[in-house]
DNA sequence: GTTTAGGATTCG
């Protein structure tokens, strides 16, 4: 860089052939090769770009004389403009050599010299370095700082309104910079000094870096040019023009290194002493131990500051944002997992998976969302006044887990601050994270196995997970364990809980930690009932006649049909209205009583939703949950008998009032039904030539584009399923002729009575369809 | 050249 900031007098550093030029002798057209001009920077304009893209920087230099023409414009172009623009300050002394003199187009307006100086780094000019000074064959420029002005600092008990002062103080309270409702970042800082007087300062700046870099209560700050005024009968500090700050670690004995964004600042030995004195004073007069905690030490229902690393982030909705963080320690309580779309999650998926047992999910709200969005994954954060909240699952009040919230607002300094990598706390954290043995925490893994828990519920208890592939990785660098498929198929379809209920997996973790054995009750899994079962239930209902009392209501109309040659059987169809009007059939939900399976199937082709019902003396009611509570085309929705807390059919009217979209989850919710989800469960025997292994595959929703929810009611899909299974597992073939499958496998322990058994699961595996 | 906020937890 051809620009150098120096300490000494510039004259002593200049080559002897250069002669100083006075402005009155400066003329256009004269050779200036051996001349230099010295002046004080009285004005500098913002660094800008010319139309052609060249960097451009303009300053005004004043000669140290009093004549009227003592100022001159100096124009910098190209790299020099860029370099100078970053370091030149008003008040600097500057020496310019190697300049061109040109006529100043603005001389008439600005009353400055009729010429201006043009300075640029010519292409090809060689730069020689001699000692501290850069000398360029065509020009060189040096600056030196004016003598540091002597600052005086006002003790906090001597403040007067309407003054601008310089202050020192220990931070008693602070709000990390947050996005204000105006144009700037805001940070509120309360400082105190040996006079024991407090001053709360409200600091604004559009540039986050320009606000004091306070990380902890007890940090020491130095404020220059802060405005003092009275507010609510108290003194208040506020940013004004020229405000600048330095921040120091408040720890007694720690190195005195100022944190500042300013490139030039004065700092004397005397000031160093001031900081040491303030540190010592604060150590005994200020309670500096903030409510910090490690994840391993958190208590529910508390506010605390967390120092952590960001590993993932995702937008949840407009007013909340998810941060996935870890601090190397393990939260002792089961903690929540916030569900987001995989595609919405930013961060290294592999790392997130590896750290899954140490990561906690934090939801930040409202004003913190904007800042949270801007955070870079991988950065180190301190989250202030984070709230842990104990919550329990809706249907199991005795089962609790911890939620992490950063509520909206900035009370108690609530907010987020990025810590630099060189921060001592970050260094310590990093060292600790490096020492964490991930395999240890993975051995008691349960997080990602939550779904499996649901499936295997009644047959198993899981005590110890091991990732086989991670053990074999040392031998196989592809990260895949290769097995050959060699067994005849066995596939069936199960129903299991929806993900919401799976969220309870956290309990298992806790129980595992206590080395107790947890066994699911049989409720967590049930085989999909046969269509014939449903038909029987329907026939049973049809035996009793519909109750005419409940035929019409404000929110549905009823039609009753007689049947031919079927005795007394009547079919009652209740059409749910919206806004007191019937909707188009394809948008309509109907409640059917007395229909057979065949009739209901027929109706489900025409109407959007069907709820099979029966009538009591007072009202309609849902059938037993052995039957589907809702039919949508070919999809039959079932509810869990044990977990559902059924509400009256009247609850549906609330949905009918709004513009009803008849979402199954919404219908289930208002009816108090815990919906069940269709899952494929398949068992494969894999053989890699060295041995055979049985492994289970669980697939929600879709297996090769075949939805689990539809396969039982579609013969077409069943045929497709057969075909795929025949390709994957052709029967009666020799091992060598069987297809290869690359997949991830992991083991888990299953306890059946007293017997313990190791089982295997295929997971995270994708088989490309064109292979099939 | 103005505004923001002006310390004082918990809805999600």
UniProtKB/TrEMBL annotation:
One GO-annotated biological process of the protein: telomere assembly
Gene3D superfamilies, A to Z: Nucleic acid-binding proteins
Cellular component aspect of the GO annotation: nucleoplasm; shelterin complex
Domain of life: Eukaryota
Keyword terms of this UniProt record: Chromosome, DNA-binding, Nucleus, Telomere
InterPro entries on file: NA-bd_OB-fold, POT1, POT1_C_insert, POT1PC, Telomer_end-bd_POT1/Cdc13
Boundaries of every Telomeric single stranded DNA binding POT1/Cdc13 domain copy: 153-283
Subcellular location per the Swiss-Prot or TrEMBL entry: Chromosome, Telomere; Nucleus
Molecular function GO labels: 8-hydroxy-2'-deoxyguanosine DNA binding; DEAD/H-box RNA helicase binding; G-rich single-stranded DNA binding; G-rich strand telomeric DNA binding; telomerase inhibitor activity; telomeric D-loop binding
Coiled-coil boundaries: none
Pfam families: POT1 (PF02765), POT1_C_insert (PF21375), POT1PC (PF16686)
Similarity comment text for this entry: Belongs to the telombin family.
Alphabetized PANTHER family for the sequence: PROTECTION OF TELOMERES 1 (PTHR14513), PROTECTION OF TELOMERES PROTEIN 1 (PTHR14513:SF0)
Protein's recorded name: Protection of telomeres protein 1
Species assigned in the record: Terrapene triunguis (Three-toed box turtle)
Underlying gene: POT1
């Amino acid at each position: 860089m051809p620009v150098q900031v120096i300490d000494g007098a510039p004259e002593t550093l200049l080559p002897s052939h250069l002669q100083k030029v006075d402005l009155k002798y400066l003329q256009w057209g004269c050779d200036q090769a051996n001349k230099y001009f010295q002046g004080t920077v009285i004005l500098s304009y913002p660094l800008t770009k010319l139309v052609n893209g060249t960097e451009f920087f303009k300053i005004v230099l004043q000669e140290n004389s009093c004549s009227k023409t003592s100022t001159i414009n100096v124009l910098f172009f190209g790299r020099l403009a860029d370099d100078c623009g970053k370091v030149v300050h008003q008040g600097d002394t500057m020496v310019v050599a190697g300049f061109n003199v040109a006529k100043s187009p603005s001389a008439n307006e600005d009353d400055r010299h009729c010429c201006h100086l043009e300075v640029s780094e010519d292409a090809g000019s060689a730069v020689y370095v001699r000692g501290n000074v850069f000398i360029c064959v065509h020009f060189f420029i040096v600056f030196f700082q004016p003598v540091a002005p002597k600052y005086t600092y006002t003790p906090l008990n001597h403040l007067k309104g309407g003054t601008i002062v310089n202050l020192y103080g220990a931070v008693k309270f602070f709000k990390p910079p947050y996005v204000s409702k105006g144009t700037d970042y805001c940070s509120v800082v309360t400082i105190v000094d040996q006079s024991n007087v407090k001053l709360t300062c409200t600091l604004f700046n559009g540039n986050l870096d320009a606000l004091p870099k306070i990380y902890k209560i007890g940090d020491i700050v130095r404020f220059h040019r802060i405005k003092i005024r009275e507010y609510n009968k108290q003194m208040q500090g506020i940013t004004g023009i020229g405000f600048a700050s330095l921040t120091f670690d408040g720890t007694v004995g720690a190195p005195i290194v100022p944190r500042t964004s300013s490139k030039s600042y004065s700092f004397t030995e005397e000031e160093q002493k001031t900081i040491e004195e303030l540190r010592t004073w604060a150590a005994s007069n200020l309670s500096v131990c903030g409510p910090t905690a490690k994840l391993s030490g958190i208590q529910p229902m508390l506010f605390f500051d967390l120092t952590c690393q960001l590993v993932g982030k995702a937008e949840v909705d407009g007013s909340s944002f998810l941060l996935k963080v870890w601090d190397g320690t393990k939260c002792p309580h089961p903690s929540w997992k916030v569900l987001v779309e995989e595609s919405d999650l930013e961060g290294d998926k592999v790392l997130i998976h590896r750290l899954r047992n140490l990561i906690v999910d934090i939801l930040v709200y409202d004003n913190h969302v904007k800042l949270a969005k801007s955070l870079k994954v991988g950065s180190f954060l301190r989250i202030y006044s984070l709230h842990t909240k104990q919550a329990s699952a809706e249907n199991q009040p005795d089962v609790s887990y911890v939620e992490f919230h950063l509520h909206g607002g900035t009370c108690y300094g609530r907010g987020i601050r990025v810590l630099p990598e060189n921060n001592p706390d970050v260094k310590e954290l990093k060292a600790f994270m490096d020492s964490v043995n991930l395999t240890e925490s993975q051995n008691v893994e349960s997080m990602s196995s939550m779904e499996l828990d649901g499936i295997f519920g009644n047959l198993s208890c899981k005590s110890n997970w091991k990732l086989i592939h991670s053990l074999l990785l040392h031998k196989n660098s592809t990260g895949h364990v290769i097995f050959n498929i060699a067994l005849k198929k066995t596939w069936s379809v199960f129903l299991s809980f929806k993900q919401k209920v799976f969220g309870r997996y956290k309990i298992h973790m806790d129980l595992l930690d206590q080395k107790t054995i947890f066994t699911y009750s049989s409720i967590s899994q049930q085989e999909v009932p046969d269509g014939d079962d449903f038909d029987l239930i329907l026939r049973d209902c049809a035996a009793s006649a519909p109750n005419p009392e409940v035929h019409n209501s404000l929110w549905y109309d009823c039609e009753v049909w007689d049947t031919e040659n079927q005795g007394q059987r009547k079919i009652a169809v209740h059409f749910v209205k919206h806004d007191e009007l019937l909707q188009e059939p394809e948008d309509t939900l109907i409640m059917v009583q007395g229909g057979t399976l065949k009739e209901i199937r027929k109706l489900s082709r025409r109407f959007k939703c069907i709820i099979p019902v029966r009538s009591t003396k007072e009202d309609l009611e849902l059938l037993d949950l052995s039957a589907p509570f809702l039919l949508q085309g070919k999809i039959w929705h079932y509810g869990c008998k044990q977990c559902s807390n059924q509400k009256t059919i009247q609850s549906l009217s609330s949905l009918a009032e709004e513009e009803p979209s008849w979402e199954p989850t919404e219908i289930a919710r208002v009816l108090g039904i815990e919906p069940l989800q269709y899952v494929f469960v398949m068992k494969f025997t894999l053989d890699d030539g060295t041995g055979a292994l049985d492994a289970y595959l669980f697939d929600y929703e879709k297996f090769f584009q075949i939805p689990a929810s539809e396969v039982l009611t579609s013969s077409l899909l069943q045929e497709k399923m057969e075909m795929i299974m025949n390709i994957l597992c052709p029967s009666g073939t020799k091992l060598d002729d069987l297809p290869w499958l690359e997949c991830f496998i992991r083991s888990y322990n299953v306890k059946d009575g007293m017997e313990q058994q190791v089982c295997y699961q295929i997971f995270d595996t994708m088989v490309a369809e064109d292979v099939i």
